[in-house]
TrEMBL record:
This is Putative Secreted periplasmic Zn-dependent protease. The lineage of its organism: Archaea, Nitrososphaerota, Nitrososphaeria, Nitrosotaleales, Nitrosotaleaceae. One of its GO terms (biological process) is proteolysis. One of its GO terms (molecular function) is peptidase activity. Keywords: Hydrolase, Protease.
Amino acid sequence: MQLYVKSILSLVLGLIVISSAVPFIPQKAYGDGFTQENVQASIGNRVITAFIKLNPPIITSDTSVDKTLSFRFFDANTNTTINNVSFFINATKGDKILMHELFYTHTGYLTIKFQPGGEDGKYTVYGDPDPVLGGLGSQTDQVTVAGPILQEGGLYHFHMELLAIDYANTLIDQSNPPKFDSYLSVGDVSTQDVTYQNNSYNTTLISYYDKTSNFNFDESTKQFSWNMPFDWDVSRFQDRPIFIHEELRVPKSLTAFSDTPTYAASAQGYGLTGSRIIVDPYTNADYMIVHLFLNKFDLLNMSKTVPSGTSDIEFKVAPEKPNVQTSASLLTDFGGWHVKLGWNPKNLEAGSQNNLNISFFDSFTEQQVTGDVNYDIQILDKDQSVLWSKTDTVARNGVDAQAVNLPINGIYSVVIKVKSITMNGVPDTTRTGMARGNVVIPSTVTEDDSLTQSNSSNPPTQNQTGQTVVIPQWVKNNAKWWQQGQIDDSTFASGIQYLIKQGVIQLPPTASSQPSSGVTIPSWVKTNAGLWADGQIDDSTFASGIQYLIKIGIISV
Protein backbone atom coordinates (compact mmCIF):
# COMPACT_ATOMS: atom_id res chain seq x y z
CA MET A 1 0.00 0.00 0.00
CA GLN A 2 1.37 3.38 -1.01
CA LEU A 3 1.30 6.72 0.80
CA TYR A 4 0.06 9.88 -0.91
CA VAL A 5 0.39 13.32 0.67
CA LYS A 6 -2.23 15.59 -0.86
CA SER A 7 -2.88 19.31 -0.92
CA ILE A 8 -6.18 20.67 -2.19
CA LEU A 9 -4.52 23.57 -4.03
CA SER A 10 -2.04 21.40 -5.89
CA LEU A 11 -4.23 18.35 -6.52
CA VAL A 12 -4.12 17.21 -10.16
CA LEU A 13 -5.88 14.07 -11.32
CA GLY A 14 -5.01 12.46 -14.67
CA LEU A 15 -8.11 10.86 -16.17
CA ILE A 16 -8.42 8.65 -19.25
CA VAL A 17 -11.45 9.84 -21.25
CA ILE A 18 -13.48 7.07 -22.86
CA SER A 19 -15.84 8.15 -25.65
CA SER A 20 -18.59 5.62 -24.87
CA ALA A 21 -19.81 7.27 -21.63
CA VAL A 22 -22.83 5.97 -19.68
CA PRO A 23 -25.81 8.38 -19.92
CA PHE A 24 -27.16 9.79 -16.62
CA ILE A 25 -30.73 10.83 -15.80
CA PRO A 26 -30.54 13.57 -13.11
CA GLN A 27 -32.26 12.87 -9.79
CA LYS A 28 -31.83 14.67 -6.49
CA ALA A 29 -29.80 12.57 -4.09
CA TYR A 30 -29.63 14.38 -0.80
CA GLY A 31 -28.25 12.79 2.32
CA ASP A 32 -30.35 13.07 5.47
CA GLY A 33 -27.60 13.67 8.00
CA PHE A 34 -27.79 10.27 9.65
CA THR A 35 -24.97 7.97 10.69
CA GLN A 36 -26.34 5.53 8.09
CA GLU A 37 -28.32 6.28 4.95
CA ASN A 38 -29.13 5.34 1.38
CA VAL A 39 -28.80 8.05 -1.28
CA GLN A 40 -29.87 7.45 -4.86
CA ALA A 41 -29.56 8.59 -8.46
CA SER A 42 -30.90 7.09 -11.70
CA ILE A 43 -28.83 6.00 -14.68
CA GLY A 44 -31.08 4.78 -17.47
CA ASN A 45 -33.51 2.31 -15.88
CA ARG A 46 -31.18 1.64 -12.94
CA VAL A 47 -31.50 3.27 -9.53
CA ILE A 48 -27.90 3.60 -8.34
CA THR A 49 -27.84 3.62 -4.55
CA ALA A 50 -24.95 4.46 -2.25
CA PHE A 51 -25.32 3.02 1.23
CA ILE A 52 -23.21 5.17 3.58
CA LYS A 53 -22.45 4.17 7.14
CA LEU A 54 -20.58 6.20 9.72
CA ASN A 55 -19.08 4.24 12.60
CA PRO A 56 -19.35 4.39 15.57
CA PRO A 57 -23.11 5.04 15.21
CA ILE A 58 -22.88 8.23 17.27
CA ILE A 59 -19.55 9.98 16.92
CA THR A 60 -18.68 12.35 19.71
CA SER A 61 -15.65 14.54 20.11
CA ASP A 62 -14.29 12.64 23.10
CA THR A 63 -14.33 9.10 21.66
CA SER A 64 -11.16 7.16 20.91
CA VAL A 65 -12.94 4.61 18.73
CA ASP A 66 -11.87 4.38 15.08
CA LYS A 67 -13.86 6.71 12.85
CA THR A 68 -14.83 5.10 9.56
CA LEU A 69 -17.01 5.91 6.57
CA SER A 70 -18.19 2.78 4.74
CA PHE A 71 -19.80 2.54 1.30
CA ARG A 72 -21.73 -0.03 -0.66
CA PHE A 73 -22.93 0.73 -4.19
CA PHE A 74 -25.88 -1.28 -5.48
CA ASP A 75 -28.87 -1.25 -7.84
CA ALA A 76 -31.98 -0.60 -5.73
CA ASN A 77 -34.23 -2.43 -8.20
CA THR A 78 -32.36 -5.72 -7.86
CA ASN A 79 -30.28 -5.23 -4.68
CA THR A 80 -27.26 -6.25 -6.78
CA THR A 81 -23.90 -4.82 -5.76
CA ILE A 82 -22.23 -2.73 -8.47
CA ASN A 83 -18.56 -3.49 -9.24
CA ASN A 84 -15.71 -1.23 -10.31
CA VAL A 85 -16.95 2.08 -8.94
CA SER A 86 -14.76 5.18 -9.17
CA PHE A 87 -16.10 8.19 -7.29
CA PHE A 88 -14.95 11.57 -6.08
CA ILE A 89 -15.42 12.71 -2.49
CA ASN A 90 -15.22 16.38 -1.58
CA ALA A 91 -15.25 16.82 2.22
CA THR A 92 -15.90 20.25 3.71
CA LYS A 93 -16.68 21.75 7.11
CA GLY A 94 -18.20 25.21 6.96
CA ASP A 95 -16.22 27.08 4.30
CA LYS A 96 -13.12 24.86 4.69
CA ILE A 97 -12.22 22.23 2.10
CA LEU A 98 -10.76 19.26 3.98
CA MET A 99 -10.34 16.67 1.25
CA HIS A 100 -10.95 16.21 -2.48
CA GLU A 101 -10.08 12.73 -3.66
CA LEU A 102 -10.87 10.02 -6.20
CA PHE A 103 -11.49 6.58 -4.69
CA TYR A 104 -12.00 3.20 -6.35
CA THR A 105 -13.60 -0.07 -5.28
CA HIS A 106 -13.50 -3.23 -7.38
CA THR A 107 -16.13 -5.05 -5.25
CA GLY A 108 -18.55 -2.16 -4.72
CA TYR A 109 -17.57 -1.91 -1.03
CA LEU A 110 -15.11 0.57 0.47
CA THR A 111 -14.25 1.69 4.01
CA ILE A 112 -12.33 4.90 4.68
CA LYS A 113 -10.71 5.06 8.09
CA PHE A 114 -9.98 8.57 9.34
CA GLN A 115 -7.05 9.28 11.64
CA PRO A 116 -5.88 12.55 13.19
CA GLY A 117 -3.31 14.42 11.16
CA GLY A 118 -2.73 17.07 8.56
CA GLU A 119 -4.48 20.41 8.54
CA ASP A 120 -7.26 22.12 6.62
CA GLY A 121 -6.72 21.31 2.95
CA LYS A 122 -3.85 18.89 3.58
CA TYR A 123 -4.16 15.17 4.23
CA THR A 124 -2.39 11.86 3.68
CA VAL A 125 -3.97 8.86 1.93
CA TYR A 126 -2.71 5.30 2.46
CA GLY A 127 -3.97 3.32 -0.53
CA ASP A 128 -3.21 1.80 -3.94
CA PRO A 129 -4.15 3.59 -7.18
CA ASP A 130 -6.40 1.92 -9.72
CA PRO A 131 -4.23 1.48 -12.85
CA VAL A 132 -6.95 2.80 -15.17
CA LEU A 133 -8.32 5.99 -13.58
CA GLY A 134 -6.06 6.35 -10.56
CA GLY A 135 -8.70 6.11 -7.86
CA LEU A 136 -7.31 5.04 -4.47
CA GLY A 137 -8.38 1.73 -2.97
CA SER A 138 -6.94 -1.57 -1.77
CA GLN A 139 -7.34 -5.31 -2.06
CA THR A 140 -9.01 -5.28 1.37
CA ASP A 141 -11.44 -2.50 0.36
CA GLN A 142 -10.07 -0.23 3.09
CA VAL A 143 -7.97 2.92 2.87
CA THR A 144 -6.75 5.21 5.61
CA VAL A 145 -6.86 9.01 5.51
CA ALA A 146 -4.91 11.07 8.02
CA GLY A 147 -6.46 14.50 8.12
CA PRO A 148 -8.78 16.84 10.07
CA ILE A 149 -11.95 14.94 9.16
CA LEU A 150 -14.42 13.74 11.83
CA GLN A 151 -11.90 14.66 14.51
CA GLU A 152 -13.96 17.42 16.15
CA GLY A 153 -17.61 18.21 16.66
CA GLY A 154 -19.49 20.04 13.93
CA LEU A 155 -21.32 19.69 10.64
CA TYR A 156 -19.47 17.94 7.80
CA HIS A 157 -20.55 17.88 4.17
CA PHE A 158 -19.56 14.97 1.92
CA HIS A 159 -20.24 15.70 -1.76
CA MET A 160 -19.78 12.68 -4.03
CA GLU A 161 -19.80 12.29 -7.81
CA LEU A 162 -19.60 9.04 -9.76
CA LEU A 163 -16.91 8.75 -12.43
CA ALA A 164 -17.24 5.13 -13.55
CA ILE A 165 -19.26 1.99 -12.75
CA ASP A 166 -19.43 -1.66 -13.85
CA TYR A 167 -16.07 -1.61 -15.63
CA ALA A 168 -12.97 0.33 -14.66
CA ASN A 169 -12.84 2.13 -18.01
CA THR A 170 -16.58 2.79 -18.49
CA LEU A 171 -17.01 6.46 -17.71
CA ILE A 172 -20.27 8.16 -16.85
CA ASP A 173 -21.09 11.30 -18.84
CA GLN A 174 -19.15 13.90 -16.84
CA SER A 175 -21.14 16.83 -18.20
CA ASN A 176 -23.82 15.91 -15.64
CA PRO A 177 -22.58 13.10 -13.35
CA PRO A 178 -24.68 11.48 -10.61
CA LYS A 179 -24.22 13.51 -7.42
CA PHE A 180 -24.79 12.58 -3.80
CA ASP A 181 -24.75 15.00 -0.86
CA SER A 182 -24.49 13.79 2.72
CA TYR A 183 -24.47 16.10 5.73
CA LEU A 184 -23.15 14.34 8.83
CA SER A 185 -23.04 15.95 12.25
CA VAL A 186 -20.30 14.90 14.61
CA GLY A 187 -21.67 15.17 18.13
CA ASP A 188 -20.11 17.81 20.35
CA VAL A 189 -19.96 16.69 23.98
CA SER A 190 -19.42 19.17 26.78
CA THR A 191 -19.58 18.58 30.52
CA GLN A 192 -20.01 21.24 33.18
CA ASP A 193 -20.30 21.29 36.94
CA VAL A 194 -23.30 23.42 37.89
CA THR A 195 -23.98 24.63 41.40
CA TYR A 196 -27.32 24.60 43.18
CA GLN A 197 -27.62 25.43 46.89
CA ASN A 198 -23.87 24.97 47.34
CA ASN A 199 -23.90 21.47 45.83
CA SER A 200 -22.15 20.60 42.58
CA TYR A 201 -23.79 18.54 39.81
CA ASN A 202 -21.96 17.25 36.72
CA THR A 203 -24.12 17.88 33.65
CA THR A 204 -23.57 16.73 30.06
CA LEU A 205 -24.71 18.42 26.85
CA ILE A 206 -24.52 16.62 23.51
CA SER A 207 -25.19 18.59 20.34
CA TYR A 208 -25.62 16.28 17.36
CA TYR A 209 -25.48 19.22 14.95
CA ASP A 210 -22.60 21.56 15.84
CA LYS A 211 -20.39 22.77 18.66
CA THR A 212 -22.03 24.64 21.53
CA SER A 213 -20.98 27.56 23.70
CA ASN A 214 -22.20 29.81 26.55
CA PHE A 215 -23.49 26.88 28.62
CA ASN A 216 -25.21 28.31 31.71
CA PHE A 217 -27.38 27.28 34.65
CA ASP A 218 -29.58 29.87 36.38
CA GLU A 219 -29.98 28.76 39.98
CA SER A 220 -33.00 31.01 40.61
CA THR A 221 -35.07 29.63 37.70
CA LYS A 222 -33.40 26.19 37.41
CA GLN A 223 -32.96 26.98 33.71
CA PHE A 224 -30.21 25.61 31.48
CA SER A 225 -29.22 27.58 28.39
CA TRP A 226 -26.61 27.34 25.64
CA ASN A 227 -25.84 28.59 22.13
CA MET A 228 -25.11 26.70 18.93
CA PRO A 229 -23.84 28.30 15.68
CA PHE A 230 -26.32 28.27 12.81
CA ASP A 231 -26.35 29.85 9.35
CA TRP A 232 -29.82 31.36 8.91
CA ASP A 233 -29.48 31.80 5.13
CA VAL A 234 -32.71 30.07 4.08
CA SER A 235 -31.41 29.35 0.57
CA ARG A 236 -28.81 27.12 2.20
CA PHE A 237 -31.28 24.60 3.61
CA GLN A 238 -34.72 25.14 2.11
CA ASP A 239 -34.16 22.52 -0.60
CA ARG A 240 -32.42 19.87 1.47
CA PRO A 241 -33.15 17.88 4.62
CA ILE A 242 -31.88 19.36 7.85
CA PHE A 243 -32.37 18.24 11.44
CA ILE A 244 -31.09 19.55 14.77
CA HIS A 245 -30.93 17.36 17.86
CA GLU A 246 -29.74 18.59 21.27
CA GLU A 247 -29.50 16.27 24.30
CA LEU A 248 -29.21 17.55 27.88
CA ARG A 249 -28.31 15.09 30.66
CA VAL A 250 -28.91 16.35 34.20
CA PRO A 251 -28.27 14.27 37.36
CA LYS A 252 -31.51 13.16 38.99
CA SER A 253 -29.92 14.15 42.28
CA LEU A 254 -30.54 17.75 41.17
CA THR A 255 -34.15 17.29 42.23
CA ALA A 256 -35.05 20.95 41.73
CA PHE A 257 -34.73 20.22 38.01
CA SER A 258 -35.50 16.52 37.69
CA ASP A 259 -38.56 16.11 39.94
CA THR A 260 -41.10 16.92 37.24
CA PRO A 261 -42.33 15.06 34.15
CA THR A 262 -42.66 18.23 32.05
CA TYR A 263 -40.33 20.99 30.93
CA ALA A 264 -40.56 24.31 29.15
CA ALA A 265 -38.08 24.67 26.30
CA SER A 266 -37.36 27.16 23.55
CA ALA A 267 -35.03 27.66 20.61
CA GLN A 268 -34.20 31.26 19.72
CA GLY A 269 -37.31 32.36 21.61
CA TYR A 270 -39.70 29.87 20.02
CA GLY A 271 -41.44 27.45 22.36
CA LEU A 272 -40.79 23.78 21.71
CA THR A 273 -43.89 21.71 22.36
CA GLY A 274 -45.27 18.29 21.53
CA SER A 275 -42.77 16.04 19.78
CA ARG A 276 -40.13 18.83 19.71
CA ILE A 277 -39.22 18.07 23.35
CA ILE A 278 -38.88 14.50 24.60
CA VAL A 279 -38.17 13.70 28.25
CA ASP A 280 -36.47 10.38 29.02
CA PRO A 281 -36.06 9.54 32.73
CA TYR A 282 -35.68 5.79 32.05
CA THR A 283 -32.65 5.10 29.86
CA ASN A 284 -30.16 6.11 32.54
CA ALA A 285 -30.95 5.50 36.21
CA ASP A 286 -28.85 8.48 37.32
CA TYR A 287 -29.79 11.11 34.74
CA MET A 288 -32.84 12.93 33.47
CA ILE A 289 -32.38 13.20 29.69
CA VAL A 290 -34.12 15.94 27.72
CA HIS A 291 -34.08 15.80 23.90
CA LEU A 292 -34.83 18.90 21.79
CA PHE A 293 -35.57 18.62 18.07
CA LEU A 294 -35.92 21.06 15.15
CA ASN A 295 -36.58 20.07 11.55
CA LYS A 296 -36.49 22.10 8.33
CA PHE A 297 -40.05 23.36 8.67
CA ASP A 298 -39.40 24.61 12.19
CA LEU A 299 -36.27 26.42 11.02
CA LEU A 300 -38.03 27.97 8.03
CA ASN A 301 -40.78 29.19 10.37
CA MET A 302 -38.26 30.59 12.82
CA SER A 303 -36.22 32.32 10.11
CA LYS A 304 -39.11 34.68 9.37
CA THR A 305 -38.58 36.56 12.63
CA VAL A 306 -34.89 35.95 13.37
CA PRO A 307 -33.12 39.35 13.28
CA SER A 308 -30.68 39.97 10.45
CA GLY A 309 -27.12 39.13 11.43
CA THR A 310 -28.10 36.33 13.85
CA SER A 311 -25.53 33.54 13.62
CA ASP A 312 -26.65 31.06 16.25
CA ILE A 313 -29.55 29.44 18.11
CA GLU A 314 -30.05 29.91 21.83
CA PHE A 315 -31.65 26.95 23.58
CA LYS A 316 -33.35 27.11 26.99
CA VAL A 317 -34.77 24.31 29.17
CA ALA A 318 -36.43 24.67 32.59
CA PRO A 319 -38.81 22.57 34.70
CA GLU A 320 -42.46 23.53 34.78
CA LYS A 321 -45.54 22.49 36.74
CA PRO A 322 -46.77 18.95 35.97
CA ASN A 323 -48.90 19.12 32.84
CA VAL A 324 -48.55 15.69 31.28
CA GLN A 325 -50.80 15.15 28.26
CA THR A 326 -51.46 12.20 26.01
CA SER A 327 -49.09 12.37 23.05
CA ALA A 328 -50.48 12.72 19.57
CA SER A 329 -47.08 13.14 17.94
CA LEU A 330 -43.64 11.61 18.58
CA LEU A 331 -40.14 12.01 17.12
CA THR A 332 -37.55 9.26 17.21
CA ASP A 333 -34.28 10.05 18.98
CA PHE A 334 -32.37 8.96 15.87
CA GLY A 335 -33.33 7.97 12.35
CA GLY A 336 -35.47 11.00 11.63
CA TRP A 337 -38.99 9.56 11.91
CA HIS A 338 -42.14 11.41 12.95
CA VAL A 339 -44.82 9.14 14.40
CA LYS A 340 -48.36 10.51 14.56
CA LEU A 341 -50.86 8.89 16.93
CA GLY A 342 -54.60 9.17 16.35
CA TRP A 343 -56.65 8.12 19.36
CA ASN A 344 -60.28 7.08 18.96
CA PRO A 345 -62.22 8.01 20.95
CA LYS A 346 -60.26 11.11 21.90
CA ASN A 347 -61.61 10.85 25.45
CA LEU A 348 -59.43 8.11 26.94
CA GLU A 349 -60.90 6.20 29.87
CA ALA A 350 -59.76 3.29 31.99
CA GLY A 351 -61.18 -0.14 31.29
CA SER A 352 -62.38 0.70 27.78
CA GLN A 353 -60.98 -0.03 24.35
CA ASN A 354 -59.07 2.81 22.74
CA ASN A 355 -58.24 2.47 19.05
CA LEU A 356 -54.78 3.79 18.22
CA ASN A 357 -54.05 4.75 14.60
CA ILE A 358 -50.30 5.01 13.88
CA SER A 359 -48.85 6.87 10.89
CA PHE A 360 -45.15 7.21 10.07
CA PHE A 361 -43.68 10.32 8.44
CA ASP A 362 -40.21 11.39 7.39
CA SER A 363 -39.36 14.13 9.89
CA PHE A 364 -37.20 15.94 7.32
CA THR A 365 -39.83 16.28 4.61
CA GLU A 366 -42.98 15.67 6.71
CA GLN A 367 -44.12 13.35 3.88
CA GLN A 368 -45.90 10.17 4.90
CA VAL A 369 -43.90 6.96 4.52
CA THR A 370 -45.02 4.90 1.52
CA GLY A 371 -43.05 1.79 2.44
CA ASP A 372 -43.79 -0.84 5.08
CA VAL A 373 -42.50 0.05 8.55
CA ASN A 374 -41.37 -2.74 10.87
CA TYR A 375 -41.69 -1.57 14.47
CA ASP A 376 -42.15 -2.58 18.10
CA ILE A 377 -44.58 -0.81 20.43
CA GLN A 378 -44.89 -0.94 24.22
CA ILE A 379 -46.95 0.76 26.88
CA LEU A 380 -45.23 0.95 30.26
CA ASP A 381 -46.45 1.88 33.72
CA LYS A 382 -44.78 4.40 36.05
CA ASP A 383 -42.25 1.74 37.11
CA GLN A 384 -41.45 0.97 33.44
CA SER A 385 -43.04 -2.45 33.63
CA VAL A 386 -44.54 -3.56 30.31
CA LEU A 387 -48.34 -3.58 30.44
CA TRP A 388 -48.96 -4.08 26.73
CA SER A 389 -46.71 -4.68 23.74
CA LYS A 390 -46.49 -5.76 20.11
CA THR A 391 -43.27 -6.98 18.49
CA ASP A 392 -42.25 -6.99 14.81
CA THR A 393 -45.44 -5.24 13.82
CA VAL A 394 -45.72 -3.96 10.24
CA ALA A 395 -47.37 -0.69 9.26
CA ARG A 396 -48.35 -1.27 5.65
CA ASN A 397 -47.64 1.82 3.56
CA GLY A 398 -46.66 3.58 6.78
CA VAL A 399 -50.05 3.11 8.49
CA ASP A 400 -51.23 0.73 11.21
CA ALA A 401 -53.89 0.40 13.95
CA GLN A 402 -53.85 -1.16 17.40
CA ALA A 403 -56.47 -1.68 20.10
CA VAL A 404 -55.33 -0.61 23.57
CA ASN A 405 -57.11 -1.17 26.88
CA LEU A 406 -55.53 0.23 30.07
CA PRO A 407 -57.08 -0.96 33.33
CA ILE A 408 -56.76 2.01 35.70
CA ASN A 409 -56.25 5.77 35.69
CA GLY A 410 -52.65 6.97 35.57
CA ILE A 411 -49.76 8.22 33.47
CA TYR A 412 -48.20 5.66 31.13
CA SER A 413 -45.30 5.71 28.66
CA VAL A 414 -45.70 4.71 25.01
CA VAL A 415 -42.49 3.57 23.31
CA ILE A 416 -42.20 2.92 19.56
CA LYS A 417 -39.02 1.47 18.07
CA VAL A 418 -38.61 1.79 14.30
CA LYS A 419 -36.58 -1.21 13.08
CA SER A 420 -36.69 -1.02 9.28
CA ILE A 421 -38.49 0.43 6.26
CA THR A 422 -39.17 -1.86 3.29
CA MET A 423 -39.31 -0.21 -0.13
CA ASN A 424 -39.74 -2.24 -3.32
CA GLY A 425 -39.21 -5.43 -1.33
CA VAL A 426 -35.83 -4.32 0.06
CA PRO A 427 -35.64 -3.67 3.84
CA ASP A 428 -33.65 -0.57 4.87
CA THR A 429 -32.28 -0.79 8.41
CA THR A 430 -30.19 2.39 8.21
CA ARG A 431 -32.66 4.63 10.03
CA THR A 432 -33.51 2.95 13.31
CA GLY A 433 -34.72 5.02 16.23
CA MET A 434 -36.79 5.11 19.43
CA ALA A 435 -39.77 7.41 20.04
CA ARG A 436 -41.27 8.05 23.48
CA GLY A 437 -44.48 9.72 24.59
CA ASN A 438 -47.21 9.67 27.24
CA VAL A 439 -50.65 8.19 27.64
CA VAL A 440 -52.79 9.79 30.35
CA ILE A 441 -55.94 8.08 31.64
CA PRO A 442 -58.32 9.91 31.81
CA SER A 443 -57.59 12.59 29.21
CA THR A 444 -58.81 14.21 26.05
CA VAL A 445 -56.27 14.02 23.24
CA THR A 446 -55.38 17.15 21.30
CA GLU A 447 -53.46 16.99 18.02
CA ASP A 448 -51.74 20.37 17.96
CA ASP A 449 -48.05 19.85 17.17
CA SER A 450 -47.23 23.18 15.57
CA LEU A 451 -44.22 25.34 16.34
CA THR A 452 -45.55 28.10 18.60
CA GLN A 453 -44.11 30.91 20.63
CA SER A 454 -45.65 29.67 23.85
CA ASN A 455 -45.31 26.36 25.60
CA SER A 456 -48.97 26.02 26.53
CA SER A 457 -52.31 27.20 25.24
CA ASN A 458 -53.08 27.96 28.87
CA PRO A 459 -50.45 30.39 30.17
CA PRO A 460 -49.67 29.97 33.88
CA THR A 461 -51.54 32.17 36.32
CA GLN A 462 -51.39 32.47 40.08
CA ASN A 463 -54.06 31.79 42.66
CA GLN A 464 -54.71 33.89 45.74
CA THR A 465 -51.86 32.24 47.65
CA GLY A 466 -49.36 33.01 44.89
CA GLN A 467 -49.20 29.42 43.61
CA THR A 468 -48.79 28.93 39.88
CA VAL A 469 -51.82 27.19 38.36
CA VAL A 470 -51.55 25.49 34.95
CA ILE A 471 -54.56 23.36 34.03
CA PRO A 472 -54.43 20.96 31.04
CA GLN A 473 -56.59 21.66 27.99
CA TRP A 474 -58.48 18.38 28.34
CA VAL A 475 -59.88 19.56 31.69
CA LYS A 476 -61.22 22.68 29.99
CA ASN A 477 -62.88 20.47 27.39
CA ASN A 478 -64.44 18.40 30.18
CA ALA A 479 -65.66 21.59 31.86
CA LYS A 480 -67.41 22.69 28.67
CA TRP A 481 -69.09 19.31 28.20
CA TRP A 482 -70.11 19.24 31.85
CA GLN A 483 -71.61 22.74 31.65
CA GLN A 484 -73.53 21.62 28.52
CA GLY A 485 -74.77 18.46 30.28
CA GLN A 486 -72.79 16.02 28.09
CA ILE A 487 -71.03 14.48 31.11
CA ASP A 488 -72.32 14.10 34.67
CA ASP A 489 -71.09 15.53 37.99
CA SER A 490 -69.19 12.37 38.94
CA THR A 491 -67.23 12.23 35.67
CA PHE A 492 -66.24 15.88 36.01
CA ALA A 493 -65.28 15.39 39.67
CA SER A 494 -63.03 12.46 38.69
CA GLY A 495 -61.08 14.75 36.40
CA ILE A 496 -60.67 17.29 39.19
CA GLN A 497 -59.53 14.57 41.59
CA TYR A 498 -56.90 13.55 39.04
CA LEU A 499 -55.64 17.16 38.86
CA ILE A 500 -55.27 17.29 42.62
CA LYS A 501 -53.39 13.99 42.78
CA GLN A 502 -50.98 15.26 40.11
CA GLY A 503 -50.36 18.46 42.08
CA VAL A 504 -51.81 20.78 39.43
CA ILE A 505 -54.40 22.08 41.94
CA GLN A 506 -53.05 22.30 45.49
CA LEU A 507 -55.19 21.23 48.44
CA PRO A 508 -56.09 24.04 50.84
CA PRO A 509 -54.95 23.42 54.43
CA THR A 510 -58.41 22.40 55.64
CA ALA A 511 -59.28 20.18 52.72
CA SER A 512 -61.24 17.04 53.48
CA SER A 513 -59.50 13.74 52.84
CA GLN A 514 -62.55 11.64 53.68
CA PRO A 515 -64.81 10.30 50.95
CA SER A 516 -68.06 12.17 50.63
CA SER A 517 -71.39 10.41 50.49
CA GLY A 518 -72.14 11.73 47.01
CA VAL A 519 -71.22 14.30 44.43
CA THR A 520 -73.60 17.26 44.19
CA ILE A 521 -71.91 20.35 42.80
CA PRO A 522 -73.55 23.78 43.15
CA SER A 523 -74.88 25.34 39.95
CA TRP A 524 -72.62 28.40 40.26
CA VAL A 525 -69.57 26.14 39.88
CA LYS A 526 -71.02 24.75 36.64
CA THR A 527 -71.62 28.32 35.45
CA ASN A 528 -68.00 29.16 36.28
CA ALA A 529 -66.87 26.07 34.36
CA GLY A 530 -68.63 27.28 31.24
CA LEU A 531 -67.16 30.78 31.57
CA TRP A 532 -63.69 29.30 32.13
CA ALA A 533 -63.98 26.98 29.10
CA ASP A 534 -64.90 30.02 26.98
CA GLY A 535 -61.93 31.99 28.31
CA GLN A 536 -64.02 34.53 30.24
CA ILE A 537 -62.40 33.71 33.61
CA ASP A 538 -58.81 32.59 34.21
CA ASP A 539 -57.34 29.37 35.62
CA SER A 540 -56.78 30.75 39.11
CA THR A 541 -60.42 31.92 39.50
CA PHE A 542 -61.70 28.53 38.39
CA ALA A 543 -59.20 26.75 40.67
CA SER A 544 -60.33 28.83 43.63
CA GLY A 545 -63.88 27.53 43.15
CA ILE A 546 -62.64 23.95 43.04
CA GLN A 547 -60.60 24.50 46.19
CA TYR A 548 -63.76 25.76 47.90
CA LEU A 549 -65.57 22.52 46.93
CA ILE A 550 -62.70 20.49 48.37
CA LYS A 551 -62.63 22.56 51.54
CA ILE A 552 -66.31 22.00 52.28
CA GLY A 553 -66.07 18.31 51.39
CA ILE A 554 -68.17 18.22 48.20
CA ILE A 555 -65.15 16.89 46.30
CA SER A 556 -62.87 14.55 48.23
CA VAL A 557 -59.39 13.26 47.50
